[in-house]
DNA sequence: CGTAACGTTGAGCACGGTCAAGGTCCGTGG
DNA sequence: CCACGGACCTTGACCGTGCTCAACGTTACG
């Protein structure tokens, strides 16, 4: 079976055959979840670890007035709650946006992996750190970017993230979310989200129609969003802390 | 020597004498850093782990137009870069805001701790997960809250975080940051930050004058900010997934 | 083929940004 | 000791991004 998890984690570690076998053993038959279903709610103490295999889910917080802020999109290969056992209660909820295929992994399996497979452990670490880096970038985006650039930036991010798990074709991909959900992720109103999407469409930069996203001019989108993919850490890091930097590169 | 690190981590684990000794050994004589100095810059690959012992630092991102977004405040007991070695390059910078006392811990020491002290390892895990939870709450705040409530919410958070490391007196604390830095953290302009602070002052809720913050009416501040401290995970979690929740508490 | 969810568009307005000026505080040097 | 300068705080006026309300169009699905 095709495995977005292995595909994603391979960025962080060179897996051995034994690693791959261990990871494949984790991937049992996924179960389907309907769209817009809660997987985990605020205050829960989940027993198993949830892994998205197909579809799109999100982390979200509900504000006292009922408004929702989506704080992360969970794509195939993403864990929903790898480490929450340490924290205790969930401080946010997780819900599907589209129909999803999910796998529940017993915590004991995770413990086994982290005790016996150092390369996998390192890759899991890497994944959680990338999640954190994405959170920081979202803060910067919501705090500083205008709404139109915020949208453009998010689509650059989603494009690259989907591409690493093989869910893109050319510069098109399926994104089964509504404009309301997009707005909730970006901290803007649905009306404004719609207008800014129309704008990007009119300027022949990208089109989001229904569930299908087509980036018409990726360079223009990147330039407009002032997008730099560094924070996604998709480049294989060099092993010993002195990679691409030239010695003379003191400034910066 | 008083140790904000131990004080903070004790929330997550019951340390043994041996744990405490190991942690105390880490705390060598800190060195002083002047305010507004970069500790780590974007693109760096830090060798040692940096720990704040006194003063306030921040994580920040610089946008292409020069605007700055502060994505985290680093208080005494907070690590700056516990795990970046796994990621490779820093995707953000870290700088002092006030004069700080910092400790640099060799990565080998961290490795030793995580290999030989399971309770410390768990506590370090807990600390990084709390950092992540704070990032999520900031996204929700910047995305959904009005500027005045955003300020109030941040002060509730800082109050509690400083309290856990013994840096508060009654409802007062020292916060050596400027209004510009506050604005950069909240994603608002300095002018607006100033006006909203005046507002909170006028309403006898809290006062920030220079480096001193005094919460005049904590209940009013909490209510106004709609602040719930859950995301800070300051309560000792119960050991086996079924703590305070009553069995009949199905909803929610 | 009807209905509900989703998308689109317009009008008016408010939160908060920008620009600009003046005030206060504090450290430094004459 | 006082003068100066720089960093920080405060306030006013104006304006723009983006919100709210409201209506209408479109798509999907039972």
Automatic annotation (TrEMBL), chains A, B:
<dbReference type="Pfam" id="PF13545">
    <property type="entry name" value="HTH_Crp_2"/>
</dbReference>
<dbReference type="Pfam" id="PF00027">
    <property type="entry name" value="cNMP_binding"/>
</dbReference>
<keyword id="KW-0238">DNA-binding</keyword>
<dbReference type="InterPro" id="IPR018490">
    <property type="entry name" value="cNMP-bd_dom_sf"/>
</dbReference>
<keyword id="KW-0804">Transcription</keyword>
<keyword id="KW-0805">Transcription regulation</keyword>
<dbReference type="InterPro" id="IPR014710">
    <property type="entry name" value="RmlC-like_jellyroll"/>
</dbReference>
<feature type="domain" description="HTH crp-type">
    <location>
        <begin position="145"/>
        <end position="219"/>
    </location>
</feature>
<dbReference type="InterPro" id="IPR036390">
    <property type="entry name" value="WH_DNA-bd_sf"/>
</dbReference>
<dbReference type="InterPro" id="IPR000595">
    <property type="entry name" value="cNMP-bd_dom"/>
</dbReference>
<dbReference type="InterPro" id="IPR012318">
    <property type="entry name" value="HTH_CRP"/>
</dbReference>
<protein>
    <submittedName>
        <fullName>Crp/Fnr family transcriptional regulator</fullName>
    </submittedName>
</protein>
<dbReference type="InterPro" id="IPR036388">
    <property type="entry name" value="WH-like_DNA-bd_sf"/>
</dbReference>
